[in-house]
Amino acid sequence: MPKNQFLAGLPAVSRRQLLKASGAAAALSAIGTPSRLFAQEKLKVAAVYTVPFEQQWVSRIHKAANAAKERGDIEYVATENVSNTDYERVMREYAEAGNKLILGEVFGVEEAARTVAADYPETAFLMGSSFKPDDKNPNFSVFDNYIQDASYLTGIIAGAMTKSKNIGMVGGFPIPEVNRLMHAFMAGVKETAPEAKFQVAFIGSWFDPPKAKETAFAQIDGGADIMYAERFGVSDAAKEKGVLAIGNVIDTQADYPETVVASALWHFEPTLDKAISEVKAGTFKAADYGIYSFMKHGGCSLAPLGTFEGKVPAEVMAKVAEKEKAIKDGSFTVEINDTEPKSS
């Protein structure tokens, strides 16, 4: 029987009910399965940071999260300057508030953070960590800024620009995520200045620009004519003393146009986007997201030379391009060395 004739033979109430049911079915068909519907919703994401938003490392996570928010993929809230003693409380508050993905860095609160994750198995946690994921926390994944590829390339440039063959290096703490970048940078320097020496120091803080600056002054007084600025404050010292600097994680050349030659940039977007897709698909699990910081995954890059364009020898930049291509195609691998670097 034609559809219209069938409906005409029904009471008015039945017709309305059938049309309502048909409309609902059509709507469900258009939307798709429940999992697909969930994938189209904005994911509630929160972040807990122990340092200010502008700190190099955290600024890249914050930038990627805000980019995802602007795309309409997520809702995003964050708290900065959380002390280690307060970190667990803030994590719990965000989990209780219904956030489905929580970001942060737990280098000083590893045990407490994993305890929180165990108490909220329906929440995904993606945390900067020196340790690996484990079976006890299937919802706790780790990441790190494995940007040794870009750090190596900045070293090649630094080796070509130093005249004294004496390079200063100021880091926060001698932990794997700092050590590996310093080692990669030093290996790059050796490509163009095999006789170079290094002054290595750690200030024992993630955010203490005055202390980093004073440490850099001491190294410059010790003969360094290029500074590896792993921490804020180092480039200020280099600028005041008229020497050069190499940036780390972010590009600060706009603030130091005559000082910062090159920078190794960290792009957190591949890491975060992978986590967002896994949570939305319901497939998030304990994993090491470190690989998404590799250059071949778009997780790091060499910043444009900008004001130093043409000041770095052309043959050196050709070598940089050659090494970059080899890193991306897998024919060359920058060594990951997490041991503490020493002055030489």
Would you kindly provide a written description of the structure presented here, covering whatever features stand out?
The chain is of the alpha/beta class. The protein folds into 2 domains: 38-144 and 268-294, Rossmann fold, CATH 3.40.50; 148-266 and 298-329, 3-Layer(aba) Sandwich (Rossmann fold), CATH 3.40.50. The chain contains 12 helices and 11 strands. It has helices spanning 3-8, 12-31, 34-40, 56-71, 84-96, 110-119, 148-161, 176-192, 209-221, 234-241, 269-281, 314-329; strands at 43-48, 74-79, 101-105, 124-128, 140-143, 166-171, 197-202, 226-229, 244-249, 260-266, 300-302. The relative contact order is 0.13.
The order of strands across the largest sheet is: 7-6-8-9-10-11
Count of domains: 2
Helix share, percent: 40-55%
Distance between the termini: 91 Å
**Strand content bin:** 15-25%
Task: Describe the largest sheet.
Answer: 6 strands, mixed
Order of helices and strands: HHHEHEHEHEEHEHEHEHEEHEH
Q: Given the C-alpha coordinates, what overall shape results?
A: globular
What's the alpha carbon Rg, rounded to whole Å?
25 Å
Question: Number of helical segments?
Answer: 12
Q: In total, how many beta strands?
A: 11
Judging by the overall fold, what is the CATH architecture of the largest domain?
3-Layer(aba) Sandwich
CATH superfamily of the largest domain: Response regulator
Low-pLDDT segments, ≥5 res: 1-39
- Class derived from helix and strand content: alpha/beta
Q: Fill in the CATH topology of the largest domain.
A: Rossmann fold
